[in-house]
Prior knowledge:
The protein is of the alpha+beta class.
Amino acid sequence: xxxxxxxxxxxxxxxxxxxxxxxxxxxxxxxxxxxxxxxxxxxxxxxxxxxxxxxxxxxxxxxxxxxxxxxxxxxxxxxxxxxxxxxxxxxxxxxxxxxxxxxxxxxxxxxxxxxxxxxxxxxxxxxxxxxxxxxxxxxxxxxxxxxxxxxxxxxxxxxxxxxxxxxxxxxxxxxxxxxxxxxxxxxxxxxxxxxxxxxxxxxxxxxxxxxxxxxxxxxxxxxxxxxxxxxxxxxxxxxxxxxxxxxxxxxxxxxxxxxxxxxxxxxxxxxxxxxxxxxxxxxxxxxxxxxxxxxxxxxxxxxxxxxxxxxxxxxxxxxxxxxxxxxxxxxxxxxxxxxxxxxxxxxxxxxxxxxxxxxxxxxxxxxxxxxxxxxxxxxxxxxxxxxxxxxxxxxxxxxxxxxxxxxxxxxxxxxxxxxxxxxxxxxxxxxxxxxxxxxxxxxxxxxxxxxx
Length: 452
């Protein structure tokens, strides 16, 4: 009737459409699908608000798991760069120090000794190599440019032990070690800060150490490797892009055993003969037993704890367990978000059943069976959850890309996370819509037609 309210006219149109659909209705008829979509579009805002829980739940699953994956990958990669077959030993200042004082000067001696290295090489089994490190300077310069970098004396076996090679030029050789050549291989950050766009090969840089500066000729540049958006870190979690590697025989020859730091009215001197060791084991299964042997050697020869032993393989196993636990926790939290979204869909669909009781009665009176009504309402919930899942996947991917701009690590969006999230959204929609659909199907046609 012309004077009928808009809500009544809309309901009548819906009933007429239902009457047209019923004669040709099958469980998955195209007209049934169209009617379901049309019913959702009649209440656009309500449909959007209903599906927001699914959208944010799916986006949360993807973002959380991708951030967790990125952080774990960064940590695992950093540990792997330290060498899973390596046992690392660092010299560290003891908590309780014993300094020898002479006038206004004090001397602190600590750390790994050459006798420790000899004992390890002669008594420990399953060793592939033992690489010695000695860091002697923190500042280098070329012409008027300076760089804060570590000048470290080492051996050619270092490159193989930490799986690093040169981008151009050459690495250190046994000949450099034997002849005590004053040559060095520099990291990418050092190359960029000192030489910018100039060729560094053959140039001479100066390593500053009080009271003088020692020249080294550049023969190579280390490969620049990014680990999940961060500079490569290897042995002792150093930034290898800021390293300057020289033959340890040359470093021991040119640099004093004592490092002097001048302060007002006094001098602080430290004596560290060896900064660190990289003990590479022949087989992976021997790493943990050898690390225990190394620990016993140092416990026997060092009364004070002036060393630190690191086992990348043990750290790797812990990191892998932590990754699995993090994914479970984050997945559980995101799953709760999806569950809340599913409850929202169920509530709205129950309200929809009440609103459309008369329409359901007309369709049942015209011959629609209970399974047709069930499928009709399930289609509507699945359309809602599928649409929310698609939008959520897109939003989660975009959110992960935004996070990659601001995070210290790069989130890794795995395809299986998107497939899993989308599948969960459809499943949540199906489960959430089942109860309202059964409620609608079980309505008595006569009672439904009597309702206003």
